[in-house]
Structure prediction request, 590 residues.
Amino acid sequence: MKKTVHIIILFVLTGISVFSQVPEKFNYQAVIRNSTGELVTSQNVGIKVSILDITPSGDVLYSETHSSSTNDYGQLAIEIGEGIGILGDFSTIEWGINDKYLKIEVDVSGGTNYTPIGTSQILSVPYALYANAAATAELLGSDGVYSTNSDTLFVVKDHSGNVVFAVFPDGAQVIVNEAAKGKVGGFAVSGRSPSKAVDFNILKITQDSTRIYVNDTVNAKGKVGGFAVSGRSPSKNLNTDLLFITADSTRVYVNENTGTKGKVGGFAVSGRSPSKGITKNMFVTTTDSTRIFTQNSEGGFGVRDNSTGSSQSYLQLTPLNYFIGHESGVNISYGAYNSFMGYKSGRNTSTGGNNVFLGYQTGYSNTEGFNNVFIGYNSGFSNIDGYRNVFIGYDAGRENTSGYLNTFIGNVAGINSTEGAANTIIGNYAGYSNMTGNENVFVGQSAGLGNVSGSNNIYIGRATAYKNKVGMYNTYVGYFSGNNDTTSTLNVFIGPYSGYSVTDGTSNVFIGPNAGFNETSVSNKLIISNSSTKNLIEGDFSNDKVTIKDILKLTPRSVAPSDPVEGEIYYNDITHKLMVYDGSIWQACW
Prediction:
């Protein structure tokens, strides 16, 4: 029996200290705290050690005292069996008979007024009894009590005797109590600051999370800084980082080797069902793609500001809407099938749908508008419920509130249009002043720039109808045609500078370069010319009069026109006379 006891003791003591045959002893370490939980550092402490038999309150087999000093971390170490004996003989304790318990009492003032700090069982299993085959900790029943087989090298148990940490010949196991709450729950690796004697977590594992705390101070640099998970090549013995985390970055390294295929390739974050194991991927990165999988059709994928009290969104992607940019689409409620990209683009959209806003504050005020396309800085900024508009360009259609079916293309094109509808305005500054005009076509830089409420006009060319504000049904085609017109209606000016000086008038037709250039206030006039000083043809629609300057030439013919009507004329190349039909017969003019 004595031989068996000594074998157990040998392994017990080998697990915790260097042991010799006489005197028998083993090391004991403790962390001392006062009644308020603060560490007792660099201070003499009185300690009383007792070995109890059978139960935590059993007979005292041996008792001794120690006087020791704590270090900067509140730790102290003593050798049990080497203290000042009070009761019994340490060397005669029969360790193999009955359970043995270790009772520790402490006087933090260094005296002998001891206070018990705990009683724990002294186990042979945690310290020794090596076997060739290792077994893991086994759960007994469902009450969370663990035991270990005799081939376990080392175990740590909680106060209830449950195994929380076990070491085996081929590995180690940490067992976490899922019911434990607070800072003591789970599993943690902690550090301590020598200057402040404060504990801090480095690694913490609980039932629902695993956390690694990295020192983010600037002096933690180099390859040893941060946190890394590395791989190793058996042939080359080289470490390769797979996951590397520092205070300013997180990097995941993926093997780009094309031979790495299948589900194990790349990097993935997945969900797991307790009953079925891994179920669905959430995030997958490979050399040729990056994929994010979402399940909630309303939640989707987003990026938001996490500042205190802030709910600002930078990115929100759902099956119904795509919002990219600070506060883009932040007020959406029932609106669907919108695509917003840009700082505060579509910020106030709530029920509007099928819109495309691209650029800084595009469609900012839109609430109900639908089927709009706004592209460019502030384009469609003020739109509230306007629909089926296309605004492309810097400030294009910026002030539009309820106008619809408009197409504005160009920098500040139609910028001041508020309620106008069905306008086509193309060109920088084209339709700049238009507010309520409808169904206009302005094409060219500054074309129709002065139009405010005029409708059904066609202005094509740079600065055409530049000053016209309320004119209607005009057609001006050509560089600066109708440039000074302010109120005219029903005019047709075709040609560069045609009708250039006209300020008001109606029902004029000017055709040709500079045609009617010097006309100012005129109506019902026909001018065909290529000069501002000499007109080839002039007409007056009010009295049906036409004037042809200098020469009118008729092509000679020998046969009179068939089916003539009164007033027709022709030149007979046989009689060499001008012939006029009087309603009955052709008459010679001389």
